[in-house]
Amino acid sequence: MSRPDFGQVLSFRQLVITLTLGWLTLMVIAPHALVIMTSFMTPDTEHLAVWPLSLESYSKVLQPIYFDVFFHSLWLSAVATLVCLLIGYPFAYILAKQPPWLRAVLLVLMMVPFWTNSLIRTYAIKLILGKKGLINSLLVSTGIIEQPITMLYTEFAVIVGLVYVLLPFMVLPLIASFEKLSADLSEASKDLGANAAQRFIHIVLPLTAPGIIAGCLIVFLPAMGMFYVADLLGGAKNLLLGNVIKNQFLVVRDWPFGSAFSITLIVMMAAMLWLYVLANRFVQRRGGLDDENL
Amino acid sequence: MMRIFKVLLVALVFVYLYAPIVVLVVNSFNKSKYGYKWSGFSWKWYEKLLANDTLLTAFTHSATIALLAATAAALIGTLMALAIYRYRFRFKRAASSALFVVMMSPDIVLAITFLVLFVALGMQLGFWTLLLAHITFCLPFVVITVYAQLKGFDTHLIEAAQDLGASEWHTFRTILLPLLLPSVLAGWLLSFTLSLDDVIISSFVTGPDYDVLPIRVFSMVKVGVSPEVNVLATLLLAISVISLIIFSLLVRRKVT
After folding, report:
1. Interchain proximity B168–A115, CB inside 8 Å
2. Which residue ranges run through the membrane (chain A) (predicted)?
3. Exposure winner among A90, A219, A285, B182, fewest CB in 10 A?
4. Number of independent structural domains in chain B
5. What ipTM describes this predicted complex?
6. Which residues have CB under 8 Å from A286's CB, separation 6+?
């Protein structure tokens, strides 16, 4: 291969590599390192975070008040993820079985709401669940109930909001794994005498496990941060991790504590991603699928 | 029986996804402020929105950021995809891991990392901080879109060009870029929508000088009902549907 203008080759190449590494170092790696550092510093009203280093913020995370908030937030996000899975799994299964054109149409229809502002969509949920909202006025005017039901500012409302905003994120990876599922395997096991339940437990479920875990991760992780859903629909009692972090950073201004909370979230995220990688390997070994993703 | 169940499930999911949006669109034309009952067609909320300067300014700011961030992310992301696809260099794995972290991290985590960085650098929160943050969180989505197309690329074309003496830059500009255009544009549109939709990161990295849409909308809807938001939602929905149509056309062209 002839390379007449070697100098120029190097310069474009170097420019591209420098840009890539430079941008990611400055905007991704350095900020993460700074947050880790801040989480070990001492809070200060004037300078936000000062030396000396301490573990105080982490011990604060473990204090009962915050620990409760932490678990309540985990619980809300976990329930929302489970609901997404329970709706999304059969939905994705049905979609994956449709002829390609219909599947494409249904997918686009699912994505249209997803492409509009999620804050405004959360506000729309508020209009529907309110005391004089769509559901209550329908139920009252048809005489099914006499008094409007309280739905807004409850755990139920937060979960409805989270599921609404995040459902497509669950469905997409699930559809991908259903598409990869070969019908031959199911038929072979049918010929060998497996019934529907056995086929589901021994074939469909293990082979779609990566899709299930990917979907759960993509729903669960952002769910914990969506402070605006909790703010608009949850009232004061139903906080998410995002509300605590936002509050520590923008209102209380205890940055080390806010950082420690975020680091806890990051560590949890890393553990879950690790689990995902393990599950993926496991399925590849057992099912012999060629999964090139990730 | 099974069939009825399937149709019912799909129908219910779509009712769930569309009911809130229908409520917004219908109420944007509703005369009554509270929108619990239909009290006649009216353009009055559209007129009110046009007279609401703070909201319009915030919208212009958000649209400006989305346009600039999407364009910059499309350019930088394409170069990053190229670097990862074509070149071997030190810390390449670290670079792809960093992109993966940005894609997987919850927005709230990215938001505080950006905030801590900008404050540590002593930057005034506003236009520039917002732009840098938005470019960064859009980047991985451009990289994976462009990288996916690069993977299916006929490498003979690149080799032929270089055998004929084209420089690396020349090969990129005259061969790779034109052929990659559909995925670059798809990445641009994805970034534009992501940027316009962002609430969490924007609330952390902008300051009082540069008010953006999610913050303004948030303060309007937090206390009560606000019909102008319905109008805004309808307009944003129209923009999204149009971009979605363009996006799907681009993706279809890429496949064939």
Report:
1. no
2. 12-34, 69-89, 101-120, 156-179, 200-230, 257-279
3. A285
4. 1
5. 0.86
6. A206
